[in-house]
Amino acid sequence: MSEKREDYISWDEYFMGVAYLSSMRSKDPNTQVGACIVSPKNKILSMGYNGLPIGCSDDEFPWNRVEKDPVLNKYFYTTHSELNAILNYRGGSLEGSKMYVTLFPCNECAKAIIQAGITKIVYADDKYDDTPAVVASKKMLDAAGVVYEKYEFSGRKIEIDL
Ligand SMILES: Nc1nc(=O)n([C@H]2C[C@H](O)[C@@H](COP(=O)(O)O)O2)cc1CO
Ligand SMILES: [Zn+2]
């Protein structure tokens, strides 16, 4: 009788891998973010990446970051991956679920995460940790009892022929 294979990916690699795969759909030239929401029983409930709302053309809206006029920058228009993952969910409740996300959530997404009942965040990168948005985000997540944990990179590389 043959044994089961042993080099299968872990739950964490699976869910963070899906978050990274989602981020690859982003049209943002500077930062691509992906999120994956998982039930307490390890079922994937939803995914999202940072992008424009439906009907707002990727080719017509701006992708700038540093224009003086904020209307000419992307920030007023892009929906963050975390909010998209929450909004993409078409099932019942996200109460008690976990979110895997490639970049630490901002204050706006933290509010949505808290209000959706998500109780744990696993994040890969925290490159904006010293910004007010992330400081405020952590303040709210702490107050609401949402646990956040840094993803531990396993070193595994996955190549997929598409
Ligand atoms: N947690 C996050 N999730 C996201 O989806 N984003 C998105 C918004 C922008 O489209 C992009 C950040 O652009 P930049 O400032 O690094 O050029 O990533 C940003 C953050 C940061 O808080
Ligand atoms: Zn956000």
Automatic annotation (TrEMBL):
Database matches in PANTHER family: DEOXYCYTIDYLATE DEAMINASE (PTHR11086:SF18), DEOXYCYTIDYLATE DEAMINASE-RELATED (PTHR11086)
MF annotations from Gene Ontology: dCMP deaminase activity; zinc ion binding
This protein's record includes keyword Disulfide bond: no
Pfam families, A to Z: dCMP_cyt_deam_1
Chain positions recorded as Zn(2+) binding sites: H80, C106, C109
Signal peptide range in chain numbering: none
Residue ranges of domain CMP/dCMP-type deaminase in the record: 10-148
Organism: Eubacterium uniforme
Record keywords, A-Z: Hydrolase, Metal-binding, Nucleotide biosynthesis, Zinc
Coiled-coil ranges (or none): none
Cofactors, names only: Zn(2+)
GO biological process, one term: pyrimidine nucleotide metabolic process
Listed name of the protein: dCMP deaminase
The organism's place on the tree of life at top rank: Bacteria
Keyword Transit peptide: no
Cellular component, GO annotation: cytoplasm
Protein family (similarity comment): Belongs to the cytidine and deoxycytidylate deaminase family.
Entry annotation: catalytic residues: E82 (proton donor)
